[in-house]
Design goal:
The longest helix is centred in the last third of the chain and has 15 residues, at 504-518. Strand 14, helix 12 (326-338) and strand 15 (350-353) form a beta-alpha-beta unit. The protein is built from 21 helices and 21 strands. Helix 12 runs parallel beside helix 13. The protein is elongated, with a radius of gyration of 29 Å. Bound molecules: S-adenosyl-L-homocysteine. S-adenosyl-L-homocysteine is lined by residues 21-22, 46, 95-98, 101-103, 126-128, 131, 155, 183-184, 210, 212-214, 239-242.
Length: 519
């Protein structure tokens, strides 16, 4: 690891990086690359914690916390950055939005320059533009505004130097501009609007305030210079919020694309494991929901690969290969590779799969699936075979260590000789009450989702062990199919949603229609 240690006397580089307004997808590729390489990361209060997963290996310091004496003093942060660069190669100073837009990035860069520490700036998506955009407000528009000013509203009246900077804001000039975007201006909203009106801006000028922009919890209020302060106060709008003043605000009803998403503002628990969680979470977020991930299942290799390996060694002997889980597919493919066998080794076989995800994974790997469980349950798959297809046939069935036997019995009843090979084990992870609460947040989610019976059973066990069962078991649940629904009900959950087709896509659609009826 010679490269990792920094050459003596030569300081590392400090990257002043913008993290964007909140939505983790608005992080730039360059910012992500910096985070991945970082040794140390100093981040601010307004950085979405989800973004910090890109720097899992770095030491992280929260320098945005408000202590009893206000913010972490700016001079101290600059000093920390200089010290850090003397000891480490890659230091990241991560700031909400863009580092040079009201982020005091300029001051930090000056301090680094003075100390002779090399730095780079990685601009970010600023909340001044992105938050209005997520509220359906373009900051410029050919008909409504050809210039825009970003103004600081000075959230914190205790901050030193406030008077001097206030004096520097030319409200007379701002009152003549078509569009203003105010940051840090929740508490001072009324005062600043009054200044604009005194300076000649019409009290009927449209204005909007947007709290927690680009987050699933985004809220906004629309009014004018006279009414908005009252509306914001009544709604309890608090920092962080961006305020837009000008005719561009009129576009909001037409262009409101984010707050109108079908699952906007809903908090939905995703209980799948690892990679498999991401597709459901991704689709839920696309629909506007906040996906809370709690891995309720852990997939592990079998105690021994012997049975599966033996079967693969004489794969020519089988007529059918059946998968009822994507985990079994993954395990099978990895063992197949060990034997240096590819799709050609299986051309004589017919492959049956339960569930679209299982089938999709097989097809990606180049194995055509000739039979898909009709309604995606193993029972239906079993029924769909005719006795004539199975009589005297040899079936290889790689599956979980613990599984229901009904399916295998059905195949045997139809005359098949079925060989079960353990391909994986699944178990409930150990999660403390604190971890569960951290994943779920302090309020119960709006919905639980189950994509397999095992996740429902495991979640029930986890909640009971953590003493959280009372709080969560009445939350409505969505199950991907009838088998999962039955298991979830047996575990004590109230299943309120099940799609007709048992795919992730259909599940998310069913959830959306469930909530649209509840509105
Ligand atoms: N450098 C940042 C701004 C820092 S000042 C940027 O470019 O975005 C902090 C102010 O930014 C907050 O008081 C608020 O006005 C605004 N802000 C940042 N993130 C926000 C968000 N997600 N929603 C609403 N306002 C936000």
């Amino acid at each position: 690891m010679a490269l990792k240690t920094k050459p003596k006397n030569k300081p590392g580089t400090v990257y002043l990086v913008g993290a964007g307004p909140g939505d983790p997808g608005l992080l730039t590729l360059k910012a992500k690359a910096c985070l991945e390489r970082a040794d140390l990361v100093f981040f601010d209060q307004l950085v979405n914690p989800e973004i910090l997963r890109h720097c899992a290996r770095a030491k992280r310091f929260d320098v945005g916390k408000r202590g009893h004496r206000g913010h972490f003093p700016q001079e101290k942060i600059a000093k920390l950055l200089v010290q850090a660069a003397r000891r480490h190669r890659v230091v990241v100073r991560l700031k909400g939005g863009d580092p040079f837009v009201f982020g005091r990035g300029g001051e930090e860069a000056e301090a680094l320059r003075r100390a002779g520490v090399p730095f780079e700036i990685v601009p970010g998506v600023t909340s001044a533009v992105a938050v209005p955009a997520y509220a359906g407000i373009p900051v410029t528009h050919r008909s409504f505004g050809s210039s825009v000013a970003f103004v600081t509203g000075h959230e914190d009246p205790e901050k030193p130097g406030r008077r001097a900077r206030d004096a520097a804001i030319d409200w007379e000039a701002l009152a003549r501009l078509p569009t203003l975007v105010l940051l840090m201006g929740v508490k001072t909203l009324e005062e600043n609007f009054a200044r604009l009106v005194r300076a000649g801006r019409s009290p009927a000028t449209p204005a909007a305030i947007v709290e927690w922009g680009s987050y699933p919890r985004q809220r906004s209020r629309v009014g004018d210079l006279r009414s908005l302060p009252r509306l914001a106060k009544r709604a309890g709008i608090r920092p962080p919020a961006v305020t837009v003043v000008g005719d561009v605000v009129r576009m909001k009803p037409d262009l409101d694309w984010f707050e109108t998403k079908p699952l906007f503002g809903r908090r939905v628990l995703v209980t799948r494991s690892g990679d498999r969680a991401s597709e459901l979470s991704r689709r839920l977020s696309e629909a506007g929901a906040q996906a809370l991930e709690l891995p309720a299942i852990e997939i592990r290799p079998p105690r021994s690969w012997a049975a599966l390996d033996r079967a693969i060694a004489r794969i020519e002997d089988y007529d059918w290969l059946i998968f009822t889980s994507v985990h079994a597919v993954e395990a099978f493919l990895s063992r197949l590779k060990k034997f240096r066998k590819g799709p050609r080794a299986l051309t004589h076989l017919k492959i049956a799969a339960v569930g679209p995800v299982t089938a999709q994974r097989l097809e990606e790997a180049g194995f055509p699936v000739s039979r898909l469980g009709e309604s995606f349950t193993s029972e239906a798959l079993g029924r769909s075979f005719r006795a004539r297809e199975l009589k005297g046939k040899r079936v290889l069935f790689p599956r979980a260590e613990v599984a229901r036997e009904a399916f295998v019995s059905e195949l045997r009843r139809k005359g098949a000789s079925v060989e079960v090979a353990v391909a994986y084990r699944s178990r409930a992870p150990r999660l403390s009450r604190r971890k569960i609460l951290a994943a779920l947040g302090k309020d119960a989610p709006d919905l639980l989702t189950f994509a397999s019976g095992a996740t429902a059973e495991n979640l029930a066990r986890l909640l009971r062990q953590a003493g959280l069962w009372e709080k969560y078991h009445k939350v409505p649940a969505a199950a991907i199919g009838p088998v999962t629904r039955a298991a979830a009900r047996l575990a004590g959950f109230k299943v309120a949603v099940m799609p007709r087709e048992h795919t992730i896509e259909a599940l998310v659609e069913a959830i959306a229609s469930y909530f649209s009826k509840k509105k």
